[in-house]
Amino acid sequence: MDTTVEPLRDVFFWATIATAAIVLEIAVFISRRKRRRAVYAVSGILGVTLFEFPRFLIPLLPQPEIIPNAAEIRWVGWALFVTGIAVMMASFTQLMAARRKGWPLQTTGVYGLVRHPMYLGDVLWAFGLSIAFNALYAFALTPLWLFLRYSIALLEEEKLIEKYGEDYVRYMQKVCKRIVPSIL
Asked: Which of residues 64 and 40 earns the better pLDDT score?
């Protein structure tokens, strides 16, 4: 009996790729101002692609079910998936509008709920997809995705304090949660 697993069908191969990509993103983020802008652009595109694509693929791969034959919970997963995408789109739209105004600090809209709503949406869609496909390993990886996004949020906030100063500190006091409303 052949017990080898094809890497491209292995959940943990793709989880390793996604984790390595976010670690690359963290390393680049920490080294900001030490390299040319193109390096950050290319690494950012690679980081996002190699973090998002594997996490989208993971629930589709063969793995145990969260709850055997639980078709009735799939709609909850799809609702979380759509909510996550909607939160990310709202965050992105709000940031692009801010960009046209010279990047003022965003403190209202989705940024009035949590300080990093794009990360909230990013974790929500992956969590929802794992439930929609009843994929146990994808579901179990959700805390890792949250931890990695939380880690980036911590680093990002240092840069935001440098950029916005006391305005950002006041915003942190007003909007206490980084990623998950009422929790984290």
From this structure: 64
Walk me through the domains of the chain, giving residue ranges and CATH numbers. Answer: 7-174 (1.20.120)
State how far the Cα of 168 lies from the Cα of 156, in Å rounded to an integer: 12
The tokens of 140 are what?
């179990």
CA distance 164 to 143: 30
CA angle 35–98–159, rounded 5-degree value = 40
Q: What is the DSSP letter of 134?
A: T
- Predicted TM-score (pTM) above 0.90: no
The length of the chain is 184
- Helix locations, the chain, DSSP H: 11-30, 37-57, 74-100, 117-132, 136-164, 166-174
- The amino acid present at 59, given as its one-letter code, is P
Q: What is the rounded distance in angstroms from the CA atom of residue 117 to the CA atom of residue 106?
A: 11
In the 8-state DSSP scheme, what is residue 65? B
